[in-house]
Specification:
The complex is a heterodimer of chains A (621) and B (341). Chain A has 621 residues and is of the alpha/beta class. In chain A, helix 6 crosses helix 8 and helix 9 runs parallel beside helix 14. With 341 residues, chain B is α/β, with parallel strands linked by helices. Helices cover 28% and strands 20% of the residues of chain B. In chain B, the strands form three sheets. An eight-stranded mixed sheet of chain B has the order 2-1-3-4-8-7-13-9, with helices on both faces. Classes of the chains: A alpha/beta (621), B alpha/beta (341). At the A-B interface, helix 1, strand 9, helix 9, helix 11 and helix 12 of A face strand 2, helix 2, helix 4, helix 10 and helix 11 of B.
Chain lengths: 621, 341
Amino acid sequence: MATLTGITLPDSSKRKKEVVDRAVIRFCGDSGDGMQITGSQFTNTVALYGNDLATFPDYPAEIRAPAGTLPGVSGFQLQFSSGDVYTPGDAVDALIAMNPAALKMNLADLRKNGILIVNKDSFAEGDLRKAQIVSNPLEDHSLDGYRVFAVELERLTRAALAETGLDAKTMDRCKNFFALGMCSWLYNRPMDATYRWLDDKFKNKPLLAEGNKLAMKAGYSYCEATEAFQVSYEIPPAKLSPGVYRNLSGNQALALGFVTAAEKAGITLFQGSYPITPASDILHELSMYKDFGVMTFQAEDEIAAITSAIGASYAGKLAITTTSGPGIALKTEALGLAVAVELPLVICDIQRGGPSTGLPTKTEQADLLQALYGRNSEAPIPVLAASTPGDCFWVALEACRIALKYMVPVIILSDGYLANGAEPWRIPEQSEIPEFPVTFATDPATYQPYKRNPETLARQWAIPGTLGLEHRLGGLEKQDGSGNINYEPLNHETMVRLRAAKVEAIVQDVPDAVPAGDPDGDLLIVAWGSTYGPITAALATQRKEGRRIGHVHLRHLNPLPKNLGEVLTRFRRVLVPEMNMGQLLWVLRAKYLVEAEGFNKIQGRPFKQSEIEAKIEEVLG
Amino acid sequence: MATATLPPLTKKDFQTDQEVRWCPGCGDYAILSAVQQVFPELGIPREKFVIVSGIGCSSRFPYYMNTYGFHTIHGRAPAVATGLKLAQPDLEVWVATGDGDALSIGGNHTIHMLRRNVGLKVLLFNNRIYGLTKGQYSPTSEFGKKSKSTPYGSADRPFNPISLAIGSEATFVARSVDVFQQHLKDTLKQAAAHRGSAFVEILQNCNIFNDGAFKDQTDKEARSENVIQLEHGKPLIYGKNRDKGLRLNGFDLEIVQLGNGITEKDLLVHDAHHPRPAYAFLLAHMEHRPGFPTPIGVLRASDELPRYEDVANAQIQAVIAKKGKGNLDKLLHAGDTWTVK
């Protein structure tokens, strides 16, 4: 029988099922404790049930820091609700901590009287020492303000798995599923989706599948039997717009977006990439889609990743390269080449904390100015930013469409938070997805390498192998039309202005900015990227309190919507929250001479809704 | 077929209207001429040729060839060409590069292209100097080279391009000389016939910044004593009177004088198809040994390994054959889904 301490629930044998509209839970433990799997399995279950949700996987850069230590703590947070969910949640309602280090690192986010499930078997003296904890929190009353369930996860899991014949070490590895079973009981969730997943994952090791299932079942039964949990929670499905849904992370969404774009363009996809956190999953994902003709090339370095993509683009592929900020730094010269030769290319920057190696697994949005301006000379590139994990799909599609229509490289900005975070995504009908078939030049009589479409200023795409269209491309300055090398002073100025005008022309494809919330009023929040969630959530609450606030979330960062300057004048004040030192702020102030103010958080973590709200209150008084 | 009636291609078909901007007397002219003569003889339609280059004097090459061409950025030609070849494996892609481009700034791409065995033909113009930046020493300059950036002599040992290529287990490694037109053309033809990566170092005189760098190999008087021409299946003989040869002594090569009981039968017979790269490496390494001749010709040609672009594309075809062509709607609906009414 497990020992339970600190129970603050009334001693009643009658179990209550309480209906609530949302819950925030966080699994945390050692990197080796399987917290990311536990979290994503629970997410899947919640999604299938029909809740809206948002997740926040937060893991260390070290693959396996010494077990039980503070740097080794990995976490996965999930908010799910019967209403709209825009963030993984500020305060945690239920924290599952697999060891003292995890407890120490995460307790501060657990709300007062929140549920705290800890693995009692990991609180021996040695465990505490590794977590640099002097006094045992399970005994010193420091957890008195929480509903603590100290459960012997290891002993109970071993007992449940005694008959399986698995060795002790393997049995211990199943304890996260015991904890998952407890959560399933606590939030009244069926376990069959996870069972299916286990059967599939361990189809060659059925004993492991069985062990994990037994552990999960035991966790569920434990809650049922011990009566320690007096209340369980019911969160009804959300009222999402009708359609078929799946759960999707930002990186998965980008991958699907690129495959879709290639299909809609009628050409095949080429990805040149070099592994880098947090972008590698796009490469993993796309390397599975060979049945769509997708060619993935794991290059020898970041430079070869982009230059191979440029070569593939020259050959008529929809070419992309995916990386993070340090990789963009290495690709910079090649970006200039893509600008000069005017070939379509999409570059993904999944931003992370910097500078240099920085915080590889943490989020930031400090590459905006790098994306906009980080090249030698005048080398304008269109820049798009995704705002939610699901939005990554649509941004990938739009970036490809622009790249092909205007014959330009296009940068997509995502970040670690979007890349790994997941949300329910309504799967679009085929009819909702635009078609943008490409045409290659074939007529030798009229072909000139730099002859332009007067409307888009795009040059024609002629691919090697086409009879009679032999031509030379290169990074040297050239004459418009013929493409011949030309160093004349006025020709250079003409070409620089042409390349800029071409990117400016894309504004015809950029929808006008329409503020969410109030169309005019006291405060306009202008933002981009993954801050969408917390700002949207904060806006709803603050407007209910009578404040007149609008929110423009920019998908197109270059060119900006043509009415943005006018929208800025409709509000008394302009606030720009960013996970950087004020980069969009700098652009807005420079371009529109507007008295905007920044709100900046550079901690490797997304904004909380409460932080945005507090700032709004501070600004508006 | 319409193409059957077309006259065969000539050198003229591969010349462009662009003014050639190399210095008068540059060895690059001879290489350009050789390539323009060889291409029409390969029986490949002109539109299938692509020349990809990096940066440097040699990298202006594509502008002077009336084929598809791509003058890229410094050192990156092999990477651009790899992407091109993966995308369209049936193209005939040649890379024009130099000692700085391929071995210094682009060294990484060079070795990875070779280890992957991408079906590219690489012409490395080696003039042992930086020409376009006006006279700094290069990674192939000899130790102690006095140049603009090393007035007291360079302190680093040079790369031997063919040693590096052999070390990367390139499947075709050859060397020729700008002024040996017939030899150069023969070598280029052999490179063209190779399916995998073909690496050809061309010793090329820069008459402005490094004039006479290869005079020991090219001077009429000296060259037969200093150059050994490799031919598969033939003994390793050289010398004005063809009286010197190379033979194995343990794991090493030694020079022997023919006569006095030593005949051709004692000499090593050149085996360009030797399965081990060590033999070719022994030949390449002679360059570092005083008194030994400079080998030219095909050091190694082993076309048994598959080409990278073929393996990569076959993988795609195999998956399509097994799973059928991808269905987008199915892909988007993959995994667990649920319906909201």
